[in-house]
Amino acid sequence: MKEIKNESDYEKASARADEIFNAKPGTPEHKELQELLKALKKYEDDFVKMLKGFGA
Fold it and tell me: What are the tens digits of pLDDT across the range 28-41?
């Protein structure tokens, strides 16, 4: 998953990250976890920016 577009994607990505959280470095699961964490952070950051826009 490269991009999280909505709350459903976010929930799926979060659940998958929880499943593979203890993946060992060098494994495909560890690479997937790193990509998921980046996508989750971007979605969260974008969500916060959107909320701040409503308060302006």
Answer: 999 999 999 999 99
Domain ranges of the chain: 7-55
Encoded amino acid at 55, one letter? G
Task: Give 4's contacts (C-beta < 8 A, 6+ positions apart).
Answer: 10, 13, 39, 40, 42, 43
DSSP symbol at 39: H
Q: How far does Cα 33 stand from its chain's mean position?
A: 9
Distance, CA of 35 to CA of 24 (rounded, Å): 14
pTM: 0.86
Q: Which tens digits make up the pLDDT trace of 9-21?
A: 999 999 999 999 9
Tokens 């990505």 found at: 13
E strands, 1-56, are none
